[in-house]
Design goal:
This protein is α/β, with parallel strands linked by helices and 172 residues long. The protein contains eight helices and five strands. Strands 2-3-1-4-5 form a five-stranded parallel β-sheet, with helices on both faces.
Length: 172
């Protein structure tokens, strides 16, 4: 089973991914960490030195390698991963995609303290961040909504998700 968690920056993909992987006895993969390991550079450095387009190409390459070389895993993707280079299509063919849908207010709260890790949000005030996230989410939502499963922030419960995944896996 290959499980891909998608959603906006700060939606909880890494946190939930680690919990699901542990409970389901699967490997956990953080795609951003894999990119950093493969390139020897931090995500912020890639954005600064090479730009977003170069980052997105590296992201697609590392995603493809992870899918090819790992049989069973839970992957926390980057917020933009499903929106570029047909990555969502690749993930849906390889496994199950889960969209973690979190309110803009909550995303702003979570991302306020993580700006250094988020090149696209660095240096923004709360109001600027709220406006940016709102506009950015409008661009990405059509991709996110194509996930096999959508979970709203109040529905994110590991045990229930595991039950849903088992049912979905058996129906495929």
């Amino acid at each position: 089973m290959k499980i891909f968690l998608i959603g906006y920056m700060g939606s909880g993909k890494t946190t939930l991914g680690q919990i699901l992987a542990e409970k389901m006895k699967l490997t956990f993969i953080d795609l951003d960490q894999e990119i950093e390991r493969a390139t020897g550079k931090r995500i912020t450095t890639i954005f600064e030195e090479e730009g977003e387009d170069a980052f997105r190409l590296k992201e697609k390459e590392i995603l493809g390698k992870a899918i090819k070389h790992n049989e069973r895993f839970v992957m926390a993707t980057g917020g933009g991963t499903p929106c570029y280079h047909k990555n969502l299509e690749l993930m849906r063919k390889a496994g199950i995609t889960i969209y973690l849908q979190v309110s803009i207010k909550e995303l702003v709260r979570r991302n306020q303290n993580a700006q250094e890790l988020r090149p696209l949000l660095r240096g923004m005030s709360e109001l600027e961040m709220q406006t940016f996230i709102n506009e950015h989410l409008k661009e990405r939502i059509s991709h996110y909504k194509k996930a096999n499963i959508t979970l709203k922030e109040n529905e994110i419960d590991a045990e229930r998700i595991i039950q849903d995944l088992r049912l979905l896996a058996h129906s495929r």
